[in-house]
Design brief:
alpha+beta, 1136 residues
């Protein structure tokens, strides 16, 4: 897309290596213009190159004169590939950050932090503060602002105390704004403070009211508006980023009253796009416009990450110079100043749009985990929310803070939506890859371009092609066969050692024949499969993808492209993206590379023995993992039984199957009596039954819940024993296949705290004796008035935080108490706290929200926060009560162990998915071998062995597709019914037990009537083969050894239906002597809610498959032998 800052060496390929799972290293390259690198790790170099382009554009504008009238915008955009001297770059960055100018709607003073001495001030500060010399002499000597003045002398005594207190704060910005008054004039100001390298900068914005209480009320009202907007965002359905952006622009416009609000998204190649807009009907829409990367310079983007709210009140207003101490080494840093003047050509750009005032809010989201692991920035500027107004407009700081607060919530929501979109895209690519692989195994390789789905479904493209064994198979918009051969020659000459290449411009990549391809084929991704086999994906030029979302451009518009205007930017963008496609995104390249590795193995003519070794190692790894999992499970059981926290569990029917000693002690109900009782109907108090029922309903569907209060009944002879209150976390219990088999509840006894808390909430009159009691049952409590100021802070809170009641009373809980005194763990914690506190004041209570902060000594405190509204006698809200609950060490330990178990299960599932994926490759080799053998001269016995081998291979393939067992569990699995010879199935079944028979020295007895061997029936051949083999193998393993035996009998009978169809009722009986299967194996087979052995899981699944086929399974144990009886009814086709 945008190519500003292109250098002369763009044709040079840049390669990088990627370690693969096989242990080998494959190089893959991305070739593009230097501003458009699209792979991980190239973003920083792209940004540096964009800095150069920005600096060049700025230098051209500066040389065009003060008015900028001779500045040709479109031409300058096209010529930003010229190099920029280092001095010019340094000067450009210095002007952006240390420009020495502020906007005139406020004034600025910079102060040495240790001495309070003024080290810099804006020229308008004296006038705004009323410090200009008086025409009539005054008896009292007025203070005069100059370098070296003590800043405290310029404001009233109470204001000076506030400044002194703020200067001592660890995080000074959390206290903003501070309400102060000028000593001379008495005028009120919002003081917005931030630290810089040489001291503290105080931005002073005139306030409209002289009552500080009204300022607090205004700030609280702004926060409430933001909280309502956030609640609206959080209520939106997931999976719709467009709806999320449309909602946020409307919310910001409602908050600020701007004429136009837009969401401006940055693409991977740094260019921007307006993706959402809310505007006055008479304004020209900008929705859908794309802009070159230089429209918002990299230096400005850096500033937005540092200071996330940027307001320009009047672009026509002249800037005010800053006067500073001559001893300072460099101009004052104004990055964090709310007053910093707009830089360079930006005011002219605004004026050309008819925009006088603007408000820009940064949308910053956390980057990917790889960046964080490498130590690089984990935050990414995703885009901006921009407000425009056609006249001068000032937004007070409290309202700007509310907008910033809204942006934090929007960023969190947006990141979740982006992750969801990424996961869905990866899932789609993986599903398509799986279908393509299956197609490869069943048909010739050309099927991936001639059938559906095809390789065009892997990534977004206009065309794709396969070059296989010297033949060309195109699909969609592609080069001709002659042109593809030219591309192959070019790849061989310049990129011969690489396994792939991607570019958004074949012109910039250096392909000589790019001009002949035209706009139809601009971008290309190629994957080198084998020596002469390649896969290609092609994209047309970007302009084809760009859609204009508003009114079409009128050719008679006065905007001639030379002035800086949105439509000029759009034209310039289209100009620079000629002969360029959309860039290849990271996820797309990963999908291509993954498919490349799979196809490379599938295209091989021979199957290496290493694949079989890998399969064996994978199975060993799985078995080893099973042992580790059993060990973890045993440790978990031991911890549960001995834990001092109440822990209990239920099965799928909601009946108790786990009841530890602590919960037995609390309720007076022994474990043996609790087993089998209904949690909801037998153990939970009537008042909690509805909550418990909903909790179970959601947990059994995988929706886990935390910090839910349940009231349990008590049992035993003690009639005075009252009910027990526990706060529980409900966690879905899962088996190795991630099937939910019940719910585990890990709780904490809060009966004592509940009694005290209820008494506290219901008490009338004087409650101080309870709140400030040193009784350890009194929880930490603090309270807020209706303006979020701290009105209560009990003894338990003093012990917990280290801050006394006197130190925090009267301070705002948001910012001063939690923020400055008790620092919160990240901005997200502050956002959640603001929402909870305001919701409580508005009457919406919050129960047991996880809450973390640092005490006075810097120790992290993790608690559960409950916030309840406070009402006066008339029922009007007067604030909120907040209770903190500290999790017991036992509960924390139990939750930690449970989390480790969940992580272990996820790890095992990943291993299982990996094994299923990797086994596909040797299976493909087996199929290929079978295909070759069928074309040779084989004897009848050899043909029979080949068919048996092929049937076993098909059985493996079918089992691998059953990784999601839910279809078998719920009975929705589709059976593949075909005609087959029953004797062939029996040969395949018996072949699978032969190795076990020989290893254990068993005799195999077969009683199969001749009529059955030649019988052709109709049914799911592979499933029948699977279940019979599983039952036979388990009996062989359990038969006494040596000199033991295992017998399989087939007893057929026939009947004819009214429609004339013959039905064969076949009873399969599998017999072995001795005690037979272990009891736990039998229990696993017939217990659908739980299993403890791998073999038991397999037998249980086979039993359900038989049930799906309308069959029956019985296991019978007699005095000297045991046997399975499997009965199936199959339609007869004919007799051989």
């Amino acid at each position: 897309m945008a190519t500003s800052g292109r250098r002369n060496d763009d044709r040079n390929s840049q390669a990088f290596g990627r370690a693969q799972s096989s242990g080998s290293s494959h190089s893959y390259t991305h070739v593009a213009s230097s501003s458009n690198f699209n792979r991980r790790g190239d973003s920083s170099s792209r940004a540096v190159q964009q800095f150069s382009a920005d600096a060049r554009l700025h230098a051209v504008y500066e040389r065009s004169g003060e008015s900028g009238k001779s500045f040709d915008y479109s031409e300058s955009i096209r010529t930003t590939n010229q190099s920029v001297p280092e001095q010019e770059m340094t000067a450009y960055l210095s002007k952006m950050q240390r420009g020495g100018l502020i906007q005139p709607f406020g004034c600025m003073i910079a102060v040495d932090e240790s001495s309070f001495r003024v080290i810099a001030y804006s020229e308008n500060a004296r006038e705004m503060l009323g410090l200009t010399p008086q025409a009539v002499p005054s008896l009292e000597r007025p203070e005069y602002l100059t370098i070296g003045t003590d800043v405290r002398a310029l404001f009233t005594p109470s204001s000076s105390l506030l400044l002194e207190k703020a200067f001592g704060a660890r995080e000074i910005s959390l206290l903003n704004p501070i309400w102060i008054h000028s000593k001379n004039s008495g005028k009120p100001f919002y003081a917005i403070l931030h630290r810089i390298d040489v001291g503290i900068v105080i931005d002073l914005e005139p306030a409209k009211t002289e009552d500080p209480a009204l300022s607090i009320v205004g700030a609280v009202q702004s926060q409430k508006l933001a909280v309502r907007a956030i609640s609206h965002l959080q209520s939106l359905p997931s999976g719709d980023i467009k709806l999320l952006c449309d909602t946020v622009v409307q919310s910001v416009r409602d908050l600020t009253g701007h004429d136009r609000v837009m969401v401006y998204k940055f693409h991977d190649d740094e260019h921007g796009e307006v993706v959402a807009e809310s505007a006055r009907p008479d304004l020209e829409p900008y929705l859908g416009l794309h802009y070159p990367a230089t429209d918002i310079p990299q230096a400005s983007r850096f500033l937005f990450k540092q200071s996330r709210v940027r307001m320009i009140v009047d672009c026509h207003a002249p800037s005010v110079p800053v006067i500073q101490d001559e001893t300072l080494m460099q101009p004052l840093c104004l990055v964090g100043s709310t007053l910093r003047a707009p830089h360079g050509c930006h005011p002219q750009y605004m004026a050309n749009m008819g925009t006088i005032a603007s408000l820009t809010l940064a949308v910053v989201i956390n980057g990917n985990d790889e960046d964080a692991a490498k130590g690089t920035s984990s935050q990414k500027l995703w885009g901006l929310v921009v407000g425009h107004h056609t006249s001068a407009r000032y937004i007070p700081f409290p309202l700007r803070f509310a907008c910033e607060f809204l942006m934090q919530a929007f960023s969190l929501q947006l990141r979740m939506e982006l992750q969801l979109a990424s996961q869905l895209a990866e899932k789609h690519a993986l599903r398509t890859q799986t279908l393509l692989c299956d197609m490869l195994l069943r048909d010739s390789p050309t099927g991936i371009v001639t059938q559906s789905p095809s390789i065009t479904d892997i990534v977004k493209c206009d065309g794709a092609a396969l070059y296989y064994q010297g033949k060309y198979y195109p699909l969609g918009v592609t080069p001709t066969e002659a042109q593809i051969k030219e591309i192959l020659e070019w790849l061989s000459a310049f990129h011969g050692k690489l396994t792939g290449l991607s570019t958004d411009s074949l012109v910039d990549a250096g392909f000589p024949g790019a001009a002949a391809l035209g706009d139809a084929v601009c971008g290309m991704a190629v994957a080198h499969i084998t020596a002469g086999d390649f896969l290609f994906w092609f994209r047309s030029h970007t302009a084809k993808e760009i859609k204009w979302g508003g009114a079409k451009h009128d050719p008679q518009d006065k905007d001639d492209g030379q002035r800086m205007h949105p439509r000029s930017s759009f034209k310039a963008f289209l100009e620079v993206v000629k002969s360029r496609s959309l860039p290849w995104e990271n996820a797309e390249m990963d999908a291509i590379h993954s498919l490349q590795l799979i196809l490379r193995n599938s295209f091989q003519d021979d199957v290496s023995n290493s694949k079989a070794v890998l399969q064996g190692q994978s199975m060993d790894l799985e078995l080893q993992g099973m042992d580790e999992l059993r060990s973890v499970a045993r440790e978990m059981v031991r911890l549960i039984e001995t834990a001092t926290a109440p822990i209990f569990a239920v099965d799928l029917d909601g009946r108790i199957n786990g009841w530890n000693a602590k919960v037995a002690e609390l309720t007076g109900l022994p474990a043996e009596e609790a087993m089998g009782k209904s949690l909801v109907h037998d153990l939970v108090h009537k008042g909690s039954q509805e909550i418990a029922d909903k909790l179970l309903f959601h947990a059994l569907r995988g929706e886990e819940a935390k910090n839910i209060e349940l009231r349990l009944m008590t049992f035993g002879s003690d009639q005075n024993k009252k009910d027990v209150f526990v706060v529980v976390n409900a966690c879905s219990s899962k088996d190795l296949a991630s099937n939910i088999v019940g719910v585990c509840f890990v709780g904490q006894d809060v009966t004592g705290e509940k009694v005290v808390m209820d008494k506290f909430l219901n008490i009338q009159g004087d409650y101080k004796a309870i709140v400030h009691s040193p009784n350890p049952l009194i929880p930490p409590i603090f309270a807020s008035d209706e303006n979020t100021c701290c009105s209560e802070w009990n003894t338990a809170m003093e012990r917990l935080t280290g801050w006394s009641r006197a130190e925090v009373l009267g301070k705002t809980l948001i910012g001063e108490v939690f923020g400055s005194c008790c620092e919160l763990r990240g901005q997200d914690a502050m956002t959640n706290f603001v929402i909870v506190l305001h919701n409580a004041i508005d009457g919406q209570d919050t129960e047991k929200m996880p809450f973390s902060f640092f005490d006075r000594d810097g120790k992290c405190v993790q608690v559960l926060l409950t916030a309840n509204g406070r009402l006066n006698m008339d029922g009007r809200s007067i604030g909120a009560f907040c209770f903190l609950q500290i999790a017991s060490p036992e509960l924390q330990l139990a939750l930690k162990v449970q989390k480790q178990q969940d992580q272990k299960l996820v790890s095992k599932m990943k291993e299982l998915v990996y094994i299923c994926q990797e086994v596909q490759n040797p299976l493909g080799g087996l199929r290929f071998s079978h295909m070759l053998l069928r074309s040779t001269n084989l004897s009848e016995d050899q043909k029979q062995l080949l068919e048996t081998s092929a049937a076993c291979e098909e059985q493996i393939s079918k089992i691998l597709k059953d990784i999601d067992l839910e279809n078998i569990e719920d009975g929705s699995m589709e059976l593949e019914e075909v005609e087959f010879v029953l004797g062939s199935v029996m040969d395949a079944v018996i072949s699978q037990v032969m190795l076990v028979q020989r290893e254990r020295g068993l005799h195999l007895i077969r009683e199969i009537p001749e009529v059955v061997k030649t019988l052709i029936v109709y049914g799911d051949q592979i499933r029948i083969q699977q279940v019979l083999a599983d039952f036979l193998l388990n009996m062989a393993r359990c038969s006494p050894s040596p000199e033991g035996w295992v017998e399989i009998q087939l007893n057929p009978s026939f009947r004819e239906t009214l429609s004339g169809i013959t039905i064969a009722r076949i009873e399969f009986r599998i017999i072995c002597p001795g005690e037979g299967l272990p009891p736990e194996l039998v229990q696993d087979m017939f217990q659908s809610s739980r299993w403890t052995t791998q073999e038991g899981l397999g037998l249980g699944m086979c039993r359900k498959i038989v049930k799906l086929m309308k069959g029956e399974v019985q296991y019978i144990r007699e005095s000297e032998r045991c046997y399975f009886t499997i009965v199936l009814q199959l339609p007869v086709v004919k007799q051989l």
